[in-house]
Write a structure and sequence with these properties.
Blueprint: H1 2-26, H2 28-47, H3 49-80, H4 83-88
Helix pairs in contact: 1-3, 2-3
Length: 89
């Protein structure tokens, strides 16, 4: 049973991953934050390499946290969706 739920969660994550990314790109707060981080990283690249690397790591961490949260949401949804409904998504 646990393996079945985990498989459904992975499937939901893969199927909905693109939609989650598009929603985030359309969200002004999230998109603005990523843009500001990228700009700061670019500004620091010439003068403060360690600072630029820290900004890049912060941006990667933010994306990873979002991805992990999406997976956890998919895992929770897998408990609620019958397998047949997942394939219809």
């Amino acid at each position: 049973m646990k393996q079945d739920v985990l498989q459904k969660a992975h499937l939901l994550y893969e199927l909905e991953g693109g939609r989650v990314a598009r929603l985030l790109e359309e969200d002004p707060t999230y998109a603005g934050l990523l843009e500001r981080l990228a700009q700061a990283e670019h500004r620091l690249a010439g003068s403060d390499r360690a600072g630029a690397e820290a900004m890049a790591e912060a941006r990667r961490l933010l994306l990873e946290m979002t991805r992990e949260t999406s997976f956890k949401m998919g895992f929770l949804m897998a408990h609620d969706y019958p397998l047949e409904e997942v394939f219809k998504l």
